[in-house]
Each structure stands twice: as structure tokens, then as C-alpha cells.
Amino acid sequence: MKQTAAFLCRWALLFFLTSILVFVLVRMMPVTPEEQWLTAYKLPHSEENLAYVREQMGLDKPLPVQYARWITRFLSGDWGLSLVSRVDIRSQFVRKLPPSLSIGLLGTLLGAGTGLALGYGAAFRRRGVCDRLSSFLSVFSQSVPAFLLSLLIIQLLSVQLKAVRFFTGDGRYALLTAILLTALYAAGALSRVVRNACREEMDKTYVKFAVSMGFPKRKVLRSYALKPVLCKLTAAVSASFAWVFGGSAILEFAFGIPGISYFLIDSMKARDYNVLQTYILVVVIWMFLVHLVLGLLLRALDARGRT
Amino acid sequence: MKQKIAAALFLLALLPRADILRTDVLHAFQDCSPEHLLGTDNLGRDVYSLLAEGAFRTLTVVGLASSLSLTAGTLLGMTAACSGRTVKSLIQLFADLTLIVPSFISALILSALFGFGPVGAGLVFGIGNIGGYVHQAQSLTQRLKTRGFLEAETVLGAGTARVIFAHILPNICRQLLIYLGNKASSVTLQYAGLAFIGLGTDVTSPDWGTLLYQYRSYLFTCPRLVLCPAAAICLLALWFHVLFDSRAQKDEGTIYD
Fold it and tell me: Which of A130, A234, B99, B150 could form a disulfide with A121 if both were Cys (CB 3.0 to 4.6 A apart)?
């Protein structure tokens, strides 16, 4: 109970700190929002116009009042309008979230599954095929940028072989490739985590005992040592969800997938700060949900954490 | 071996470079020659000079980011492990704050808003990575604190600062440097990605990512143009990985081997 309260308090605090940071950041922009607004509507930047827009947007009020208004509106579900297209941001986000989330979630889950299988294989036989493959994958994902690989795939499959259309049609091949690439990049590091966790468990007394008693070696590792390995994997996955947004931004850009990160990149060109503020808060909420679910999973796996 | 590679790279950096802003369309797409070591690009610019300039920019980013996050993260992490609950939770809150928005996204946003070069990118990546170093340093210190020799030092009357800098730091250094190697290669890739997307970055500045974006359509007509910056990114990232990650890690046999 106390842990849950502390967890919720921490995330509420993180949410408000991040929102204050974004709020301050937007106020520090070299071009003020009212100038931006007038530019977007191709109106002259005269004193009267600026004053009028400032009053309309509520920018003449003191900063704490502005912040309170913005954050209460956000929490009650009114996310404001896009400065450029005058479309409701929330409906835009609701439409663009599914591709981004499927890249992040499915990609990472697929990567974690592959990593688990590969890591187990690698732990069983040192310097075997699986061990070398997982080692190669982890170095590969650290040294070859994702956008380079996507360029190659697009040029090869789409331009040269003309087998797949990425930028026309319903874009399902683009989404599929992005998910697979995310999984590939996640699998490398995660398989090393699983392998090292397995090696650590293999040296523990209970495993030695079970193997000496004559239980099959594979069964011991697969059933008795599963929980501690899964715990380490879960912790590693929750850390890797953080870069899923960064990674998916590049993939969405490379494949032209209409997700929220591509929306952000598009809106940043016009310095649409309404979209920017909302995007950051959505990222925070998403990270909160990820940590909530993975934290619950970790508690279910590891009895020692319960009080 | 590592030193030889470093020396070779240093010598390469000393080679004379052509003016990267001068275009020469009459001599576009030239092959490698003594005059143009790696040939010329679609505008007749010398590819080698572009790459060297890009290397300088990338190294600035990586150097700034790594030194900033290593120093701040290690200090904060060790302090957190050695102090009371209030300080510890404050430091952890700060670490979580830096981790919550991926540093790639913050760099993307800040570069779009303020339009910065390598120094700005280095600072943003540096701040964004502090959280990871804090967690690493803290857990390593925590593990070390259970060992007897630290207790003995405290009993003998050594102050907290002395324990931290003379005993804990040398012991966790090795692990932290391995982490540094991983992070340095990831910063290399992220900076390349940032330049590839190209928000707020100067398109005339020859970052490796920018070059890749400009040359992407010549992948099959003139593969050299794409291969050069791609190889540069991969090799630098790989080099950071190898430089700090000693292969001689202990992997003792278990009952399974």
C-alpha cells in the first residue's frame, strides 16, 4: 500500500515537473507564439495585431495563471487546437497513436521474446551458434543506425526489386518493417541480458543441486531458473521502452508512417508549440503506464519485493 | 592495437583538406584519385574533407555528452548511495526526470526550436544521459558498500569524501567506462539520426547523417557516396564499443559446461 502511494506520488511529481519544464521551454522560444500565430495566418506583425492575439490566447495574463489554465484544460481532456491546421489536437493524437504504439509495443515484445529464446540458447553453449549470433546482434545494433538499415531496405525492396510499396497504399508494409526493425534492435541487447542472467543463475547452489540430483539440465534452467531471468529481462525491457519513442521517431520519418512522432517532426517545422506540449505530456503518461504494468509484473514475479 | 588505430586516425586528420563549401559541378561524381582521396560528390565537393569535418563535429558531440554525463552522473550516483533518504530521493527524482523524455526527442525538439550545432546537441545528450549514469553508479556503489574494507575505512575515521573518491571511485571506474563506451556509440548513432532528420540543423554543415540524407538517392548509381558516411558512422560507433569494452571479461565455467 505504502509502495503504491509512493509510486503514484513520484509519477505525479514527475508529470508536473516535466509539464513545468515544457511550459518554460515554450516561453523561451526565440519566436513568440503570437508572432508565430500571425505568421501562420500571413497577417502583419503590427502592435495592435500582436496585442489582440496576445489577449485572445490569454498570453497577457501572469505566467502561473497561464500554466494553471493550460494544465487543468489538459487534464480535463481539452488539449487545444493545432496552431497550423486549427484541428483539435486530441482527435489527431487518437488517430496517430495506434501506429506509434504498435511499433513500440509489438516491436519491443517481439524483441523481448526473441531475446529470451536467443539468450537461453547462448547461455547453454558458450561460443555456440546462438552465443555468436546474439553477440553479433548486440554489436550490430550498437554500431549500425536504424535509419541506415531502413534506407537500404527501402532502396532494395522498393526501388530495385519493386517488390513492396512503402509510401503508397495503406502503408502496412512500412508498419510491419518498422515493427520488425524495432524488434531486431531490441533483441540484440536483451538477448545479452538474458544470457548473462542465465549464466549467473547457473552458478547458484540451487541449480547445482538440482543438476547433481539428476534433473535434466535444460529443464532446470527453463523451469526453476525462469523467474529470476524473467525479472532481469523485465527490468531491461522497462529501460528500453524509453528509447522506443526516440527510435520510432526515426523509423516513422524514414518510412513515412503517420504516427505521433512523425506528427511532432512535421509540427516542429512550423514551431507548433501546442502539439509539442501535448506530445511531451503524452510521452510522460505512456512511460507511466509502461512502468505501472512492468512494475506489477515484476512484483508478481519477485516475491521478495512484496511487503 | 587500439593505440595504433588512434594514431592512424590522428594522422588522417592531419591530411590537407579542401574547402568544403566550394562546389565544382564540372567535376562531380569523380572516382578516388590522389587529388580527391574519396572522390567527389554530386556537387563536386571533396568527400574526404566533408567526412573529416563531420568527424570533428561528431567527436565534439560525443566528447561533450560523455564527459558531462559521466562527471555529473557518477558524482550524483555515489552521493546518493552514501547519503540519507531525503538527498537520495531528490537525486533519484532528478535522474528519473532526465530519463523520462528520451534524449533523442528532447534533442529533436530543442534543435527545432533553437537551431543548434554540435555543442548544443552534446549538451542535450549529456544531460539526457545523466540518469543512466546515476543509476549505474548508485547500484555499483551500493554493492560495494557491503564489502568489509569500506567499513574498515569508516571505522578508522575516514570522511565520506575520502571514502568516495579514494576507495569507491577507483573500484567502480572500470564498469562505468564500459557503460561509457556503450553510451558513446549510442550518442554517435543518435546524433547521426538527428542530422538525418535534419530539423533546425544547417544543411550546409557536413554532418554524417546530413550527408547520408543528401546522398540517399545515389545508393545504386554511385554507392561510394552512401558507403563513405555510413562506414564512418558504423566504424566510429564500433570503435567506441571496442575501446572501452575489454573482451577479457571473466566467464567462468559452470556446471553446464
Answer: A130
